[in-house]
Amino acid sequence: MPMSVTIKDVAKAAGVSVATVSRVLNNSAAVSEETASAVNNVIKEMGYSPNFLGRNLRKCETNNILAILPSTEHTVYSDIIKGMQDAAYPNYDVLLSTSNSYLGTEMRLLDMLFNRTVDAAVLLGTQLDAQKLNELDKQYNIALCCERVSDAKVLTVSINNEAAAYDAVKMFLKRGKTRIGLVTTGGNTDALSSADREKGYIRALSEYGIGFEEKYIYRCSYDYSDGCKALKYFMSLDKPPQAIFCISDLLAAGVIKQAFMDGIAVGSKLEVCGFDNISLSEMYTPGITTVSQPGYEMGKTVIGKLLENMRGTEKNHDMIILPHKLIIRGSTQS
């Protein structure tokens, strides 16, 4: 028996046409029960396994949507993915992969889109520029989630990161804090969300007549330990900050951990705010004041709109902004 049985082999053995075998595989009513039974017996005897992927590709449908994450560091992604999967079910599956914020890996993963082994792709952070994204969008179904790209005319679902950071810093200012530290990421490959949050930080200070000072910014990665290092740096200043805004809850947790080790009372002597409202922020002691992103709704919305684009004749290229919420907990209560 051949190592790989084809549909032609089955048709020849059953004494029917390839089209008839195809109709049997698709449970078509156009084939008599007797013929269908004979063909199915041959399929069973020969061990034929139909190439459903190949059939779907000929229809330009795989019922798979690729989601590319820049990393696994951000736990907020779990809610987004859950929303994506719920919106895709039952007609589509969401396939997950990670680019590690490396352009070469991202392009290799996108080969699945170029080769039509997935029907669409959602990028939860990308190294591609607006020009490349706009070119891709003309040929394929793509969308951005979480992270926007300036000048990209591609369906995007996110929050207003600048406004969210502004709200968090303004909270400190209203409470009389004038020296406010910022823990953020650094480097030329940063996502725009980090830059937007820094802009919100600066805008809030400016509205209260407080000048921007670079010494009150600590740039690092998203690692928990960097939050610990940030607090050590801030406490080494002649005038340490009275409050610290972190662009992620993990960084805020690191700041609070180091404060505890150094005997600094968080919530009274030092106030701390994070970002994302991950489950840890509520379980931590003290609870971490944070900006909540509607992760589940973001994931659900991006898939819903992407499916509309896939089925429609005109694409939706909107930037869809969902509401954020400031959640107050013990890290800012004196």
Please give a structural write-up:
The chain has 13 helices and twelve strands. It has 334 residues and is an alpha/beta fold. Strand 9, helix 12 and strand 10 form a beta-alpha-beta unit. Helix 1 packs across helix 2, helix 1 packs across helix 3 and helix 5 packs parallel to helix 13. The protein folds into three domains: 7-50, lambda repressor-like DNA-binding domains (434 Repressor (Amino-terminal Domain)); 64-159 and 295-322, Rossmann fold (3-Layer(aba) Sandwich), CATH 3.40.50; 161-292, 3-Layer(aba) Sandwich (Rossmann fold). The radius of gyration is 27 Å and the shape is elongated. The longest helix has 17 residues, at 295-311. The chain has helices spanning 7-14, 18-25, 33-46, 52-58, 76-88, 103-114, 130-139, 161-174, 192-207, 224-235, 249-261, 279-283, 295-311; strands spanning 64-69, 93-98, 120-123, 141-145, 156-158, 180-185, 217-220, 243-246, 271-276, 289-292, 319-321, 325-327.
In short:
With 334 residues, this protein is α/β, with parallel strands linked by helices. The chain has 13 helices and 12 strands. The protein has helices at 7-14, 18-25, 33-46, 52-58, 76-88, 103-114, 130-139, 161-174, 192-207, 224-235, 249-261, 279-283, 295-311; strands at 64-69, 93-98, 120-123, 141-145, 156-158, 180-185, 217-220, 243-246, 271-276, 289-292, 319-321, 325-327.
